[in-house]
Amino acid sequence: MRTIITISREFGSGGRDIARAIAKHYDIPYYDHELLSRAAKDSGISEDVFESHDEKPTSSFLYSLAMESYSAGYIGNSYAEMPINQKIFLAQFDAIKKIAEEGPCVIIGRCADYALEGNKNRLSIFIHGSLENRIKRVVRDFKINESKAKELITKTDKRRASYYNYYTNKKWGHCSSYDLTIDSAVLGVNGSIELIKEYIRIREHLVDTDNVIF
């Protein structure tokens, strides 16, 4: 097992449960909020600051400055003179790359698939599902009514899409942005887990036998 799995997900699709189960199956590290802790530790910025800016879009101007700083090798040096949105974005971007260098793992959200673009071991996955199915899951998990569940889903997905679309050259949730997209409303959590395991098995076998066609 050498695959680095990045998972993006619609709210209420069960993506987090699927990610945790995959990490447990392969006995590899799992990074969700753990990524924020890692980025905070590496950068010296308070973890509370990362939490307050987690997967929230910034202005395109700040994004341009951030990418220019990253390209110039500024990341990993002094963050003192950067605007806070730059600091958070670059620290997470850098933490994701460092985590991937340590070996197989599962990373949830935060444009990890984009940060690791070009990494031959990266497998990017998007988990989605019908709105009806996701509302039922959110009602069950958060103990709220259907109206509030639908509102929470809409707001969360909009925020995640805005964040992803700001920081990448791809579109959040679009099939062309990922290696694999899965409808968890059709397969369920367990079926989705089995599909991912089989996909990884076939993918690594093809690479090992030089049977991958590009």
Which features would summarize this protein structure in a list?
214 residues; alpha/beta; Rossmann fold; five-stranded parallel beta sheet; 9 helices; globular
- Overall mean pLDDT stands at 86
Total count of strands: 5
CATH architecture: 3-Layer(aba) Sandwich
Fourth-tier CATH superfamily name: P-loop containing nucleotide triphosphate hydrolases
Shape: globular
Estimate percent helicity. 55-70%
Low-confidence stretches: none
Strand content: 5-15%
Q: Which structural class do you get from the secondary structure elements? A: alpha/beta
Describe, in short, the structure shown:
This protein is of the alpha/beta class.
Characterise the protein shown here:
With 214 residues, the protein is of the alpha/beta class. It has one domain: Rossmann fold, CATH 3.40.50.300. Helices cover 57% and strands 11% of the residues. It contains nine helices and five strands, in the order E-H-E-H-H-H-H-E-H-E-H-H-E-H. It has helices spanning 15-26, 33-43, 47-52, 60-71, 84-101, 112-115, 131-142, 146-167, 184-208, and strands spanning 4-9, 30-31, 105-108, 122-128, 180-183. Strands 2-3-1-4-5 form a five-stranded parallel sheet, sandwiched between helices. The longest helix is centred in the last third of the chain and has 25 residues, at 184-208. The radius of gyration is 18 Å and the shape is globular. 36% of the residues are buried. The model has no long low-confidence stretch (mean pLDDT 86).
Sequence-ordered SSE layout with sheet pairings:
Elements: E1 4-9, H1 15-26, E2 30-31, H2 33-43, H3 47-52, H4 60-71, H5 84-101, E3 105-108, H6 112-115, E4 122-128, H7 131-142, H8 146-167, E5 180-183, H9 184-208
Parallel strand pairs: 1-3, 1-4, 2-3, 4-5
